[in-house]
Amino acid sequence: MQLGTRWSAGGEPPASVPEALVPAIREVEARIDEPAHWTLTWLEGRPIAELDAGWEVAISASGEVTSEPFDLED
After folding, report:
1. pTM: predicted TM-score of the whole model, two decimal places
2. Can you tell which superkingdom this protein's organism belongs to (predicted)?
């Protein structure tokens, strides 16, 4: 895993965030109403943006962009 960067939800994603992720990131941000931060990491060469409010946006091995909530308790 390669650590990327962090930024505030609602802010401009850093240039290192792949453009393919930005629409899904904006959709997730429209669902939340609390301050949160994104963390971009890279796993096996694929980007994963994780929102500390419980969402993950990623590009799968097939190239599909996915956004999924996750349980903050795990």
Report:
1. 0.90
2. Bacteria
